[in-house]
Amino acid sequence: MHFVHDALRHYNAGHPGAEFDAVKPLIEDNVNIKGKPWFHINFLARSCISKNIKRFFAEVHYEPPTDGRPFSRLPVVEACIILDESSSQYRSSCAFCRSHLDVLHPVDDHDFVCGTGKDKEWMIEELLGMRFISCRDLASNSEVEEEKRDLASSNGEVEEEKTEV
């Protein structure tokens, strides 16, 4: 629940007079990027004015402590937005979140930082420990075909040349 409180503190600071109180967390997913835990969270919060309950999406990550205390990570809230009632405007995953968890995300990648389309290639590189490069990235089609012919001939396969009569 501390993720929710961190996110709402950020939201309320930017919306004086339109503050919300936490009701309950709904779902979260997380990933560690370069030693920093990042969280995507959906939660419910109640308007302090109208008492209406709204669903929120928040993205929070934690920076290492600057004061030397090992368990005092600093929260950084990249996004905390109200999700409108129509869930068709949202998607249930990003490049990092597992789709079966149904963490609702804004469709627009500009509304959050981690897990946007640009992160898919980075994730492959991070998981494999190398940049993923396909054969087509390295060579043209003719070079690939030439390599196949060389491999076939070195394995004793003879390719008959067609001659026109």
Automatic annotation (TrEMBL):
Residues 5-106 form the DUF3615 domain. Pfam families: DUF3615. Residues 142-165 are annotated as: Disordered. It comes from the Eukaryota. InterPro entries: DUF3615 (IPR022059). This is DUF3615 domain-containing protein.
